[in-house]
């Protein structure tokens, strides 16, 4: 007979062992002919000073380049991560087999799923089509005036903020304010107001929930949100109230706008769909939130990366782009879109540091094959690693890790043609591609060109001597706590 105590410890031991094996070893039905990345790899940046680029180089590059796909532990489960263009193209194309299955399905109990819900990015099938048709048109044709106006405000704020003694400034928080104001004015139809006053209540609220959502512990182990942890209960409450306030704010503005029917904001189209009872209030909220999230976070990351690269290549690219930009007048977005140096620089930045690095939101709907011989069981999460794809040596050659805007071509037609080609063949996957391609690419690129133009008009940028050159350790990819020296042009 076992004593009750030893019985309990035996059960405990078995549970612990099961948990360990679930984490340490991929499921047995996963394909055997691709390598496994050790499970502890994703935890390394938590314990060591290591960024995602170093992590990729050390643990992922070799297996990924050799096999094109690997088994990797992420978000409390084992997944298959893909980087080889042929595999990526297959995943992007075969929507029915590699079906979108975002956080609302993967971890519905989590704070992050409560935040973004069932939106255009994560939905599948007919519901996705419905959302996409509500948004597509207005996200391709938008009012650029707020982008120009806000870029100027942004530069003014840099001026005010630069430390007189060192000329140095941390640009991160300012970039966030800029991108928030832009996206809310351009797609949601109201001014977030973060550039006019440092403290806007909606902005404070957003900063608070972002901290709670991107908490490393809960991001790595989302299942913890199943437990009644007071801190997380608070997070749920904050997220719920943010969603409510945001949507009411958007609707209020639309209702007050006597020309509502003529407005063509992405949000006005969503509201029209809601008024026509095509989508319900939850769906309206989910999509307004995702417009705000995708619309400000990704450009925020990319602007940060571009300012970093401009500062890093100060005497070459920054100087040359400024010479090229000089002849453009304010408001001429078209002029900016035709500049070879500026555009190849931006495309190369998108390639080098894809703002969204690892995306795992597709689940196989049946037993299937990736390529010729990688057999993937049903209900397996399949994701893509953009850094891997964009640095794949077979695609980009031996200079894949070097920053070389000239690889895109020297005249604008060649540059744009190369850009389209790399995207359609999934050789460059930063904006996804195919039917599920990013709807905000055009908007993001306009925003980026205008911001770079306005910043270079006023400042010469260099990296602050005190800034340590590192990228973020995990999640969204951009320089970590970037600090720049901004010298006024005279
Ligand atoms: C630098 C800027 C941006 C990057 C790198 C980026 C990247 C991406 C990526 C990788 C996806 C596919 C996500 C997936 O696989 O699940 C996506 C989808 C999407 N993005 Fe962006 N994005 C950017 C800016 C924007 C902006 C400014 C908006 C505007 C609101 C936006 C709206 C969307 C939407 C609506 C989708 C979903 C498309 C669909 O599934 O039908 N994005 N984006
Ligand atoms: C979206 O809009 C563009 C241009 O307005 C159009 O070419 C495209 O076919 C539309 N549909 C989708 C699903 O992207
Ligand atoms: C907002 O618009 C301004 C002005 O065009 C631009 O400088 C800035 O980069 C934009 N912000 C974002 C986040 O795109
Ligand atoms: C809204 O519609 C979705 C999709 O049809 C449905 O799953 C959800 O329960 C609805 N929510 C409400 C509050 O009616």
UniProtKB/TrEMBL annotation:
InterPro entries documented for this protein: Cyt_P450, Cyt_P450_CS, Cyt_P450_E_grp-IV, Cyt_P450_sf, Cytochrome_P450_monoxygenase
MF terms (GO), sorted A to Z: heme binding; iron ion binding; monooxygenase activity; NADPH dehydrogenase activity; oxidoreductase activity, acting on paired donors, with incorporation or reduction of molecular oxygen
A Pfam family that the UniProt record links to this protein: p450
CDD domains to which the protein is assigned, alphabetical: CYP56-like
GO annotations of cellular component type: endoplasmic reticulum
Entry similarity comment: Belongs to the cytochrome P450 family.
Protein name as annotated: Dit2p
